[in-house]
């Protein structure tokens, strides 16, 4: 684990799951310039890391980072860099830049991965696990508490529902803003930083494929392969694969009909049993190489569409809560697991479901990070895999764009799943809420583009919760 990364990786994930509104330029400023040459001084044998006991290591990362992980990954990474690199000088800045570059292509939140890296330097692989747990624990505990309070309030509490009704269009605005931020630096060439039209096409076509209900795994893998061919100027194989995907789709429609919305799912969590929740978290965690926003559509299609054990409105509420806690956004899975496992009315089962899906979501992050850097460096330096990840990360934009539109529609319409079987008067009231929800969406989007501080999402959520009491309480 102490091996030093020496080659920059795809600068893709950056702040992809960021709840703040930092521009790509601001995000890249976290690690300054990552174009250092391999022979730059200070890239090897340069660490002056204190050897801490396991208990001291846990408290160090819990107190310095876990409790202050507000504002999303941009703020979290900046905090880690300032404390451990600038102030305490555990490693040099060039080495930090290389480490960060490696973690940008791994599944999982980069801030947690950085904590694990420093934990490994201080106390070996066990120290890496301890540091990662210490960083994530405060947000996990707060999300457990939020999930429990949410279940206590109940769906019939009008004040509770009013606040979350206002939060849903705000969340939709956050996701659309995140889509723009991710796209802005995921469709650029590594060498020139200029927009690559082929990566733009990959993103657009993946969004089209989502609308056509082509499985997202097929699209991600296909456009990774297509761009690998394009990067090597193998135009004929690239064009052939591009055409064949739609020929295959046309043949499928002719013989089987248009795919249903649940065709996007793998069907791994048709019921929220503990084993199914673990597998759901595990697969979603493997997809989080593009940030938490990449895992969101997968969890949604499995839990909301195919499994139908989680209402769409509750799913959006999970993202809303995850946006304001001191934790990576992937912590929204904790809420999903709690609400799914609570269907049988057992609070013990609910806590177990929350813990097991979180474990699955974070397991890939821990596995790849604790495994060490030597293999990762080889993968990063592999040109074939680098171009594959370029195409894959660009196609992720299309996946996120589709979920952004779906959540926008659901958030403005309102929680129709809670209106089933209600009297006509209540249905009319639900319809009347569409206008204020649309206004909230537009105002939130404006604020997110105008103000770029790390506290903007938190202030928006607080304001929205208060505004809901005036807008949506009869």
TrEMBL record:
Source species of the chain: Cephalotrichum gorgonifer
The keyword Cytoplasm appears for this protein: no
Listed GO CC annotations: plasma membrane
Keyword Cell membrane on entry: yes
Top-level taxon in the UniProt lineage: Eukaryota
Protein name: Chromate transporter
Location of the protein in the cell: Cell membrane
Classification via NCBIfam families: 2A51
UniProt region (Disordered), positions on chain: 1-42
Pfam families reported for this sequence: Chromate_transp
Keywords, ordered alphabetically: Cell membrane, Membrane, Transmembrane, Transmembrane helix
Transmembrane intervals: 57-80, 126-150, 198-222, 234-255, 275-293, 314-338, 350-372, 384-407, 427-448, 455-473
Main localization (coarse): membrane
Regions of compositional bias (Polar residues) in chain numbering: 20-34
Family per similarity comment: Belongs to the chromate ion transporter (CHR) (TC 2.A.51) family.
Membrane topology of this protein: Multi-pass membrane protein
